[in-house]
Design a protein that fits this description.
Layout: E1 3-16, E2 30-42, H1 45-59, E3 63-65, E4 71-83, E5 94-103, H2 108-116, H3 123-127, H4 133-136
Antiparallel strand pairs: 1-2, 1-4, 2-5, 3-4
Amino acid sequence: MWKTFAVKTIYRTRTKGEPYSRSGGDSDEFDMVEERVVTFKARSFDEAIERAEKEAEEYVSDVYINPFGQEVSWYFTGESVAYEPCDSVPVNIEVFSNTYLVLKVLKDEELADNILGKCFENESDLRINFLNSELAGFR
């Protein structure tokens, strides 16, 4: 059965090359990060993530030159998470996007842990601590 899923993907933007000049606006210490949520029609969470990852590779295909003469390129970090919205949502639309700066030394895995949350052993058991027993049918 086809359903609508929303998938969050994470991207990094980097500059390459020596700048024409130095000013307060250029720095080689930072990357820009973008979080995007896009909706997809799929039969499962895994299929939704596959579709999102394919779309992500197309999304980062542009390269351009910044005001300092440096090449700017994006890449998909390979990190994503899917969820099924409670309400009806159109497919193939970007429903959220946010950009911010991070230190370049921050690894993609650490970035993903910060954005998507770190997974823990026995996580499903640990989450019971936060379950609403009335809504879940516990008495």
